[in-house]
Amino acid sequence: MTQIAFIGGGNMATSIIGGLVQQGDISAASIDVADPGAEQREKLHASFGVNTFENNLDAITNADVVIMAVKPQVMKDVMAPLKSTLEARQPLLISIAAGISMDALGRWSGCKAIVRCMPNTPALLGEGATGLFASEDVHLDQRNTADSLLRAAGITVWVKEEAELDAVIAVSGSGPAYYFLMMEAMISAGQKLGLTEETATKLTLKTALGAARMALEADVDPAELRRRVTSPGGTTEQAIATFEGAHMRDMVEAAMKAAHDRGAELSKELGDS
Q1: How far apart are CA 125 and CA 122, in angstroms?
Q2: How many Å apart are CA 123 and CA 25, to the nearest integer?
Q3: What are 131's strand-pairing partners?
Q4: Can you tell me whether residue 200 is helix, strand or coil?
Q5: In Å, what is the CA distance from 67 to each residue of 37, 87, 102, 114?
Q6: Same domain, 114 and 184
Q7: Which one-letter DSSP state was computed for residue 162?
């Protein structure tokens, strides 16, 4: 039985643990979670029946897989006291922290088999989209293990080059915020057009959910779906023309390029620290 250790029991770890336990493929007894907060440890044990520890070393003693679920800024300090154990055991190391390179993870942990992944916040609902990249030392069984663990929180997509994770950040990692901003704008515009905030919010959120479901389930791409609901001379055509006239596509491209570039900068900054 594969023993899995989570270092950090926050929201993202909780979403993965919850998905794993719900699926039933991995027993709670094979999941060890280390977190400094007593209240969080109690919550995790009560909710899922997993083993919890205050000390990180205790959690990784028998681990075949170690999932680093701590903030990027503290990753190096958290790994320092674990390095000798990790180096000796050589578990599969999975990092869900943005901006920490393979090189840095290898130096700080002493591990060879490493998977970097970039989940997003909808993973908290089991609707996440996660990009993954594996080091050359990750064998097929370990890759499959990493994939199954992250699929507990949504879909997974593997990239061939580590640098592609910066593009993943730009598309899906930061992506939920783009849609939230669009929702904000639509709710505000709806109010200015005479709707109450409650009504504008309900209509906006349900429309966003419905459009996403249509795009996921349709046998055509989003561009075709847009064309199908854009009648010549109609209201939608006028709205789309306004977006296009304001160079919305250029704005989206520039915004995602900025997110991509910042991801690369953070990786260098955090890795050099």
Answers
A1: 5
A2: 18
A3: 118, 157
A4: helix
A5: 18, 15, 14, 10
A6: no
A7: T
Same domain, 26 and 155: yes
Cβ distance 240 to 228 under 8 Å?
Answer: no
- 180 and 150 in a common domain: no
Residue with tokens 């209201």: 235
Helix (H) or strand (E) holding 167: helix 164-168
Tokens read off for 91: 């578990």
Q: Half-sphere exposure (CA, 13 Å, Cβ side) for 70?
A: 20
Both 52 and 110 in one domain: the answer is yes
- Average pLDDT across each block of 10 residues of the chain; the chain has 273 residues. List them in order: 93 91 88 96 95 96 96 94 96 93 95 96 92 96 95 95 94 96 98 98 98 97 97 96 97 97 88 68
Q: d(Cα 156, Cα 118) in Å, to the nearest integer?
A: 10
Report how far residue 5's alpha carbon sits from residue 22's, in angstroms, rounded to the nearest whole number: 18
What pTM did the predictor assign? 0.89
